[in-house]
Amino acid sequence: MRIGLVQAVFPAGKLAENYKTITNFARQAQAAGVELLCFPELALTGYCRTTAKDLDFAAVEKYLGVQNSQEGKGAAAATTLLAVAFCKNLRDLARQLKLALVVGAVEKAADKLYITTYICDRDGQIYQYRKTHPGKREAEIFAAGEELPVFTLAGGAKVGVLSCSDNHYPEAAQTLALQGARLILAPFAVPGKISARHKIWNKYLLARAYDNRVFVAAVNHLGLTAGGKNFAGGAVIYNPQGEVTAENFTGTPGLLVADLDLAAAEKFWQPQDGSSHNLCFPLVRKPELYK
Questions:
Q1: Of 65-69, 112-116, 127-131, where does mean pLDDT reach its minimum?
Q2: How confident is the model at residue 151 (pLDDT cuts 50, 70, 90)?
Q3: 143 and which of 112, 185, 240, 252 could share a cystine (Cβ 3.0–4.6 Å)?
Q4: pLDDT computed for residue 70 by the predictor
Q5: Residue 247 or residue 69, greater confidence
Q6: CB–CB of 122/100 below 8 Å?
Q7: Residue 287: inside a domain, yes or no?
C-alpha cells in the first residue's frame, strides 16, 4: 500500500485556504500513485483550540461533504454520515482521485466540540474518529471520544487513528492492533523545535510500532499557532520491526511517500515456523495481571 503524509501550514479558521492546500497535495499524491493520504491534526479547520467555538460549522460540513445524523457514536456514527448532494467536497475529491483522504476538522455534535479525524475513502464512504485523550487544555474546550474503531478501507487495509496526545497511551495502540489494525495513523499538532519532535517520536512512536507489530505513520503541522508559537513539523513512518521506513524532518512543506507491506505486519500475528510460538507481543500478554 502506498501512503502519503503531508506536513504543511494550515492556518486556524481558514477553511477555504486549507481546503485549497489539501486539494493541491491530494493531486500531487494521486500523480505519485498514493492510495491513502494523511494530513496533520485538524488540517481543514486548522488547529483552533482558542477559537473553535467561533467556527462556521455549516462551512465545515460543506467541505467534508457530510451531515451528522446524531445517531450513535464513534464508529457507529460513521455509517450514518450523509453526503451533501452536489457539493464539491472532500468525499467527492477522494472518489475522483481514487485515494483515501485522512483529514481532521473540529466537529460539533449535540452541543459538544470534538477533535475529529475523517477518512474519506475512494468508494465514497466516510469514517470518523473522535480524539479519545484530549490534552489538559484541550479538555477545557473539546469533549473526549469514547471509541477506538478500526476501519477497513476499500482496498482491504485495516487502519486505526490516534490523534496527537492519544499516542502517549500504550493501551490505545494495542487496542487498535488487537482489533486488526496493521497501520495506525497519527496526525499531530505540536509546537516546538523539529529536532525535539524527531527525538521524542523516535522514543515512543517507535515503541508503539514495535510492541504492537504495526506500522505507525505520524505527521505534524508547520507554521504559527494561534498563540504565536511555531508548529514543529515532521513526518515519519515506523515499521513493525521498530525501524524508520521513511521520514521528513526538513521543516519545509512537502509530501512524504512510502510503500508499506501490510501483509508483512500481519505475518507477525500468525504462528511462526508451524508452531504455537509467536513473535507478536500482544498475543501473549497477561491482562489478568494488569490491574
A1: 65-69
A2: very high
A3: 112
A4: 41
A5: 247
A6: yes
A7: no
Its pTM stands at: 0.92
Q: Which domain holds residue 72?
A: 2-261
In a domain, 281, yes or no: no
| CATH number of the domain where residue 40 is located | 3.60.110.10
Written as nine digits, the cell of 124 is 465514497
Q: Is residue 201 one of the residues assigned to a domain?
A: yes
Residue 246 lies in a domain: yes
Average pLDDT of the segment spanning 153-182: 97
Number of compact structural domains in the chain: 1
